[in-house]
Amino acid sequence: MKSITTIERMVIESIYSAKRSIFEISQDTDLSLGIIKNTTQELLKEKIISQKQGSFFIENVQLEKLNIKKEVKDIGSSMIKQYFSDRGNKQSKSGLIVQKIWMNTHQEKIFKALVGNVEEYLKNLKNDQKSKPQGKLSKKQVVMIGFTEYGSLSNQILGTPALSM
Question: Per residue in 101-144, pLDDT tens?
Fold first, then answer.
């Protein structure tokens, strides 16, 4: 299956639980009708969504099985752009934390446990929200947590294999 973009994911999520018209998708996502039309046409062509009598719906597609590589890349770069454009704005609803620190084995274990707690909390929130609508999709929070070693990151950027010491 092709890798989907963040915009395609928003459209898919909007119609995942109920059939929706282009207008309803636009209201739910806060995306323009032109963007919705182009995106739904692409998703129809890929057979990810279906259309009947002006309404779009999903049959036999599990969100977890979609290739999300483009989506994650979109989210990461967009969060960074938004962070730098919102810096200094006290009303901003976005945040980004980047720290480069050394951790010993004990500190790393504690950190991973804390990240695990946050992940578990987010999973529980998501499960609680499955049965009750929460409002417009465009108001949904996006959370991205990650960590890696500085050397691995620089090697990935440069496209070189890591050196073993």
Answer: 999 999 999 999 999 999 999 999 988 887 776 788 899 888 98
For 29, the token pair is: 């996502």
Residue spans of the domains in the chain: they are 1-90, 97-165
Tell the burial category of 70 from Cβ atoms under 10 Å away from its Cβ (0-12, 13-18, 19+): middle
CB 48 within 8 A of CB 39: no
* pTM across the whole model: 0.73
What element of type H or E holds 56? strand 55-57
Fold entry, domain 1-90: Arc Repressor Mutant, subunit A (1.10.10)
Identify the residue whose tokens are 């032109």: 34
What's the CA gap between 111 and 155, in Å, rounded?
23
